[in-house]
Design a protein that fits this description.
α2 (about 55-65) runs parallel beside α4, α4 packs parallel to α5 (about 105-115) and α11 crosses α12. The chain starts with 10 loop residues before the first helix and ends with a helix. β3 (about 75), α4 (about 80-95) and β4 (about 95-100) form a beta-alpha-beta unit. The chain has about 325 residues and is an alpha/beta fold. The chain has 13 helices and 10 strands.
């Protein structure tokens, strides 16, 4: 379901998305933090109403549907955060939403998506191709697919975080360190902050965006390892993402599960933030010295949807 014939996301679209989102949601905090003796900043997207930045792209995509599209409903694919972003927007706009989710998605994310009123369609991960499952649902319902990153409106919506960052800093950040799954947030931030370095951070073995940027074309994950970063496991990125990031993003960086767990503990101890593994990947890269930081560096903490038991286990490790 990767298409390269769609309209391209633009900075003008990001600015429009930011204006729309500002009417609904207050800016998430930009928190000071010291890393390696350098005072920089964390953008706490984990404090969004759904616990993740995905509310931005979900809202901007669904609010741009026409009346006929709204009447037919939407289908999304997600391990949980995009699911909640789409479900939140759908409920607010009165649109039916079906979300294709893996059976092994965190229970907290499944339950939160149901609580927002979305229908959940389960698939087996690994075992089934989620894109094929979603395509069947789209066809049977005559619905609109709301892809987590292969969608220009979603990319623009995610980029609204960068407009907030610049306003909060009073200037463009020198660099933005970004947790990266399919690359929608990274691409949106590249559009929002055209003069800032963009560092994409992925779990070890799941660096489909970093590899794609190096290869100049979409790269698929082949026999990737198990990772605790459930939110950062797409099989591949998409041409629309690469069209934005090519020549803009810095070389990709990967982090290990142990580095991610250390970042979760740091965020809890130093920032009073509960952060899920995928939401801590960028912070893990900064703490491990895999990306440079300076006074105008912003590190994205992208999600906080983790269950109490697994989080307590990480804290007590």
């Amino acid at each position: 379901m990767i298409r390269d014939d769609m309209r391209k996301p633009t900075r003008e679209g990001v600015l429009a998305a930011a204006a729309s989102i500002a009417e609904l949601l207050p800016p998430t905090p930009l928190l000071p933090v010291e890393i390696g003796g350098v005072r920089c900043h964390v953008k706490a997207e984990s404090l969004q109403p759904i616990g993740a930045f995905k509310i931005r792209g979900g809202w901007w995509r669904l609010s741009n549907l026409d009346a006929a599209e709204r009447a037919r409903g939407v289908v999304a694919v997600s391990s949980g955060n995009h699911a909640q972003g789409v479900a939140w927007a759908a409920r607010r706009l009165g649109i039916a939403a079906a979300i294709v989710m893996p059976r092994n998605a965190p229970t907290v994310k499944l339950e939160a998506t149901r609580a927002l009123g979305a229908e959940i369609v389960l698939y087996d991960r690994p075992g089934e191709d989620r894109e094929e499952v979603a395509a069947r649902e789209v066809a049977s319902r005559d619905a609109t697919l709301v892809h987590a990153f292969n969608d220009p409106w979603v990319i623009e919506g995610q980029g609204s975080a960068g407009i907030e960052i610049a306003a909060q800093l009073g200037r463009a950040p020198s660099r933005v360190v970004v947790c990266c799954g399919g690359g929608g947030l990274s691409a949106g931030l590249a559009l929002a902050c055209p003069d800032s370095a963009i560092h994409v951070i992925e779990p070890q073995g799941w660096d489909v965006v970093g590899q794609a940027l190096e290869a100049g074309e979409v790269v698929r994950a082949v026999n990737p390892p198990v990772t605790i970063c459930d939110a950062l496991q797409p099989d591949a990125s998409a041409p629309v993402v690469l069209s934005v990031l090519q020549g803009r993003a810095q070389p990709g960086v990967v982090v290990t599960d142990e580095e991610v767990r250390a970042a979760q503990r740091f965020a809890f101890a130093k920032l009073n933030l509960v952060v899920e593994p995928g939401g801590a990947a960028a912070l893990a890269a900064a703490l491990s010295g895999k990306v440079p930081v300076d006074a105008d560096t912003v590190i994205m903490v992208t999600g906080g949807n983790t269950d109490a038991a697994s989080f307590a286990k990480t804290l007590n490790a």
